[in-house]
Fold each of these.
Amino acid sequence: MSKFLSIIFCKCPKCGISDMFKYSSFNIFNFITMHPECPSCKVNFEPEPGFYLGAMYVSYLVNSFIFLLTALMLTFYFDKSIIFTFITVGILSILVLPYTLRISRVIWLYIN
Ligand SMILES: [Zn+2]
């Protein structure tokens, strides 16, 4: 599996086989729970305490890209009102939160 697909599907950065997270992103209460190490190749998913604090910068970039793209498309391409755009982006931010948190952690681990 390519690195891009491994990131999209939240796979281990070393072997690309096992999932990094224990539960689905649709599991509202445990969507961010990770395996401590890869079940296949035993690579450590938390190299040091607080390792994933840097993932919030990645999360900021990912969310900004998604929300800005959505707002620009709604405003200029679909010609929607600014109130509709704000409400839509607000609802979208809640809906994509579990996945963007997970993908930010995965990208951060791949970077490091
Ligand atoms: Zn692995």
Amino acid sequence: MVASAVGTLAGPLHGGANEEVLAVLQKIGSVERVPEFVDDCVQNKCRIMGFGHRVYKVKDPRAIILQRLAEELFEEKGYDEYYDIAIALEKVVEERLGQKGIYANVDFYSGLVYRKLGIPNDLFTSVFAIARVAGWLAHWKEQLEINRIFRPTQIYTGPHNCPYIPLHERL
Ligand SMILES: CC(C)(COP(=O)(O)OP(=O)(O)OC[C@H]1O[C@@H](n2cnc3c(N)ncnc32)[C@H](O)[C@@H]1OP(=O)(O)O)[C@@H](O)C(=O)NCCC(=O)NCCS
């Protein structure tokens, strides 16, 4: 099950997108160049990495959560030009492509966060996958019980607001 989940992350339009996001931010180079970059992409019908989703036609709810955490991280570790360009890029893409249902997805912010944490680009997808293993296995376990595909309408039925218990204090 985990092997097939890892397999579905293959390719630049999927698991590799967060690496591509950083390449895009680097290519843009400055906040001032953002509108020109987006106009160019729209005109030439190219895909802007970190935007769009097969299921979500609104801003990816995971991106909203991660953006908030990214802000906390940048506040602590210091803002940089990548962050500024990303914020400007999201705003312009939303203005130009929002009506087509294209908004930031979770990969847009995950690349920024991983870079800020000092994780090398070619490990981004692996780190993303490691963080998801517990969730994948939970889905698999739930699914075995009723054998139906939930996504994207599944409803979480487990406990809410559980306190975080540090690892060394767990049994
Ligand atoms: C994720 C993705 C593959 C989903 O694609 P999809 O829902 O199948 O969307 P489609 O391929 O049917 O595209 C629908 C339209 O939106 C456009 N579009 C989709 N994603 C776009 C993007 N990131 N930038 C610009 N245009 C985009 C397509 O060109 C197409 O335009 P058209 O109708 O004028 O031909 C796609 O949005 C994408 O390639 N995103 C960039 C890579 C990325 O960030 N991946 C991580 C996903 S979590």
